[in-house]
């Protein structure tokens, strides 16, 4: 049984590595766009005027103070919102990828997600300082984003592969086959986003409540 499991793990690993190798240029393009979004978020938060910066810092400070006063986070409500947001996102990307012409919008989503992360991290660090800011980011955002970000990147690659395949071969049979492949990948990635939502709602929330006294 152990040997069978080892072989299965090895086969999955080889399959993933081969997929990345075969689509290395696409991954590189998407990752660069994501990084550009992060950099844009950092630049934006560092160039806001004094009044806006104060509002952002006050918002983060008030949120932390509220948690310190034994504020109860409704994890069930948080889970529903996270699941709703994530599933709407993956369905939107599936639709845009399936229509082919939606590829620029898909890339825009990647850029925007990078921007949000860069903006959030910069705002947190500007408010709490480097050490506390990194700790706050780690317990509140890091864990679920370790799942979320690769999922969004993989979904974008699937959309781009669908576009390339249809442009290369516009036969109805090929289009149908590629859309089915794209749909199956979307379903699998949706399951990972469910895991990301569970991590965000329960693991990250509990970690935040355990460490809130340090902020």
Shape: elongated
Unreliable runs: none
Structural class designation: mainly alpha
What is the string of helix and strand elements? HHHHHHH
> How many separate structural domains?
1
The main sheet comes to: none
Rounded to the nearest angstrom, the radius of gyration is: 20 Å
Provide the β-strand percentage band. Answer: under 5%
Average pLDDT over all residues: 87
Distance between the termini: 48 Å
The residue fraction in helices comes out at over 70%
- Please count the beta strands (DSSP E, at least 2 residues each): 0
Number of alpha- plus pi-helical segments: 7
Describe this protein's structure:
The protein is mainly alpha-helical and about 220 residues long. The model has no long low-confidence stretch (mean pLDDT about 85). It has one domain. The protein has helices at about 1-20, 25-45, 50-70, 75-100, 105-130, 130-170, 170-210.
Annotate the secondary structure layout.
Elements: H1 2-22, H2 24-46, H3 50-68, H4 75-98, H5 103-128, H6 130-168, H7 172-211
Helix pairs in contact: 2-5, 2-6, 3-5, 4-6, 4-7, 5-6, 6-7
Question: What attributes does this structure have?
Answer:
215 residues, 89% helix
Short description:
The chain is an all-alpha fold.
